[in-house]
Design goal:
The complex is a heterodimer of chains A (about 500) and B (about 475).
Chain A lengths: L1 H28 L1 H5 L5 H6 L8 E3 L6 E8 L10 E4 L7 H4 L2 E2 L2 E2 L1 H5 L1 H5 L6 H10 L7 E4 L3 H12 L6 E6 L6 E7 L12 H13 L8 H4 L9 H11 L15 E2 L5 E2 L14 H7 L2 H11 L1 H10 L24 H8 L9 H12 L3 E3 L4 E5 L5 E4 L4 E4 L3 H16 L6 H4 L1 H4 L6 E7 L10 E8 L6 E7 L5 H17 L3
Parallel strand pairs in A: 1-6
Antiparallel strand pairs in A: 1-2, 2-3, 4-5, 6-12, 7-8, 7-17, 9-10, 11-14, 12-13, 15-16, 16-17
Chain B lengths: L1 H4 L14 H27 L6 H22 L7 H21 L17 H22 L10 H17 L2 H4 L10 E3 L2 E3 L2 H23 L2 E5 L2 E4 L5 H17 L2 H19 L2 H21 L1 H11 L12 H13 L22 H34 L3 H25 L17 H22 L19
Antiparallel strand pairs in B: 1-2, 3-4
Classes of the chains: A alpha+beta (about 500), B mainly alpha (about 475).
Amino acid sequence: MNRALFRLSLACLAMFVLLLINVNYVQAFEGNSLADRPGNARTFNQQFQYQRGSIIAAGTGGPVTIAESRPAPGSTSGNTTYQRYYPGGPAYAPITGFDSIYGSTGIEEAYQKYLAGTASSLTVHNLISLLTGKPKQGATVYLTVSPKAQQAAYQALLSDGGHEAGVVALNPSTGAILAMASYPSFNPNRLTTLDGTKFVKIDNELLRDPAQPLLNRAINQTYPPGSSFKVITGSAGFSTGKVAGPTATVAAPQPLKLPNGNLLNNDGDETCFGGHPQVIQAFLLSCNTAFANIGMKVGGPALRTYANRFGWNDANLTIPMLVSPSVVPPITDPSYTAMTSIGQFDDQVTPLQEAMDAAAIANHGTLMRPYLLQQVQAPDLSIIGSTQPTVLSQAVSPQVASDMQQMMIQVTQNPAGTAYATAGPPAVGTSLVIAGKTGTAENTVSGAGLDDAVFTCFAPASDPKIAVGVIVKGGGFGADAAAPIAVKIIEAYLGVH
Amino acid sequence: MTTITSQPAGAAVPLPRGRRRTELLMLAFAVGVVLFAYANVGFGLNGKLPSGLVEYGLAFAVIIGIAHLAVRRFAPWADPLMLPLAALLNGLGIVMIYRLQQSGRNGNPGNQISTLSSSATAMQVLYSALGVAAFIAVLVFIREVRVLQRYTYTLGAAGLILLAIPAMLPSSMSEVPGTGAKIQIAVGGFSVQPEQFAELALAVFFAGYLVAKRDVLSLAGRRFLGIDLPRARDLGPVLIAWGVSLLLLVFESDIGTSALFFGLFVAMLYIATQRTSWLLIGVLLFVFGAYVASKLFSHVGTRFIVWLHPWAGDNPTHNAYQLVQGLEGMGFGGIFGTGLGHGQPFWTPLVQSDFIMTAFGEELGLTGLMAMLLIFGLLVQRGLRAAVAARDPFAKLLAGGLAFAVALQVFIIVGGVTQLIPLTGITTPFLSQGGSSLLATWALVGLLMRISDTARRPAPQPIQDEGMTQVVRAG
């Protein structure tokens, strides 16, 4: 029987070896991904027992802490529970999001691994902490956000008379997001309660609020672009060669009879330089019929291709939060193409996309990928991650970008320009030159309400440091409602005034 | 050692040593590890020594000490490692149950485990005392395992009756809450799982029966594909064992125990006959039975689905919730674990029972879990060693079967909770909360130690005529 016993021992050995291999697979090989699975109550729960990393706005005017963990009121020293605190409140809410017992949003969600300290790059550090008996701590996330620009942006939206609005400011040469504000916003401190019932009550209240305070309008809400789309139409016209240059003449009848028989009017039904303006003149006056003609010459598909180069129709863009795509629908019909060219058909745009349009023009036609993360710093102060600016696309050639810059400068510097009064010398003096384009979209969605005001711009025109996109829903004229907001942000960021 | 020094001078016959001193040393080590782990739980949970350190520690040390004294008195030649290994596992089980019972109670962090009463630790210590009492009783009353051979059929019948009782009872009395398995007899607040004892009775029955019939069973019938198939008329016992395990599965929803019994029988049949064909027939019958059962009975089929697709619906209402929680806990623990008291094993439903190894995995990490598996492996190895050393075929068969049963039980439950095989609920030997399993496992270790003692006991020395004969040894 000993021979059989020997074989049976081998079977036992095999069973134990299988178990050992399997637990190695589960805990060593799969361990991190199991721990980080969404819905793993342990990882989630743990964040309130350890100090979560801070979020810091590290751009110009910073660093300013915009999210940090503090010991919760009433927690004892042996059993500390931490609670999140947002010193910036509603101004930074679209960026930070919030971290609650039932989930997180915004940066809190996107960089959960770093903030909670579960990222694999923090493993060695955590191990050292474990061995030295130090409490576990999350990594600090530094953002590109400029507190100066961000505060100015939120204050500008707040004092705008209660219109729903979103704004984004970018560094055109890197894509770094300098400001991102949304109105109406919410106070994330209300959602940090560790009391589940209380959280659900407040969360429901915010979710049911018709003003939708949780919606980040800067990246997750789209609006008709209106005339600000002429930046794309103009770029497409120059790039395709259908329009020779800014001084080329283009037909601008009032009204323009479209192929389908409908009539297209200029704003206020005014004639445009006698019906035969140069492109640059049509741009600064924002003549609809001139750009409708350019759009029809370029054609729907080509127009869409150039819009895509500026980042439109991209459903996968993340900053790291997912950005709602700005839409130029695929159309071939010339009449609809004409409407699209002036941003009045089914086009939809986010404030971020407006900023990206201006940033690409400002950066010699090169569109940089927008991003929020500057770097991640482990608790031992070592840098475990940072963003290298990357090119998202070459939207237009440097020559076309230069032509577009000239046209956008005229919008604010020519006394006839649509934004001369609100973003030109009368508003900002002669030392600062802002290049921009206004948009006033007829808002059929909002019914009887005022038009949506749009402004896309960059400054200083000679050496662009900041590009801004603003949309104010129901704000009225772009030049009146949106441009002043952009001006306030630019002035605060550049430190003029 | 006393046995050697009592030999007359000059007759230096090297006797095998009892090695009780080694056992004592290893026991001191085991108790030390357990006390350290217990203190660790207190520090992990609320930063200070746990309140019951002295009481529980003393109680545990005394229980183990008595076991050691009993071994010295009644089985002085027994294997010196089995008792320390069993004590270490038992002690770590108590520590983990204390840790689980504390979560959410007495100001400690975590969610309270509602299925674990606040007296669970005290009860587990009490069960350990009863288990050690059963262990001592085995050593005291069974001086030779051979005597059990006389009760082969009595114990066989007893085993079957013990197995059948829960199936006869209304589910209010026999169902383990929250599992659907009808495996216990619950009266008042007290419950017994008779199958734990049935395992021992049936192992004895199998050994007695197979020793008597092994010559017949080894007879070759037809040869097929290079394997000697047994004669058709000898298939009876295998089919009966198979049938019983299937009945168990159908009427008590107890897949794990069913697999354990059948595996035990096939392994013992193989040891007795040395015929690979029996092994093959057994495995094929089992696979066939499991397949048919998975198609016929939804609770068996569900186990397969959960095993293959645990992540399909990662929510509390899904069937895989328990398995998923266990795996996430182990992942959360990673290589070094969170440390005792620092993890969150309370998320896993019934973690104190079938899933207790995942709690160890979470708090002691991969390293701790591997160490514990190795302790189980060592225990199995010592049991198989006793089987090899035993001279009596009955004892040999019984020891081999019991050791294999421990290995198979660990494989079924640990493999189940780590997603290696479909999950079937059986207890983890020595660790899971509950008295029946602890009692039966201690009795099992008692039997193994008795067999080992008999095997290692030196043959009686002939009385030597001093001066007349000299033992001459070369080298």
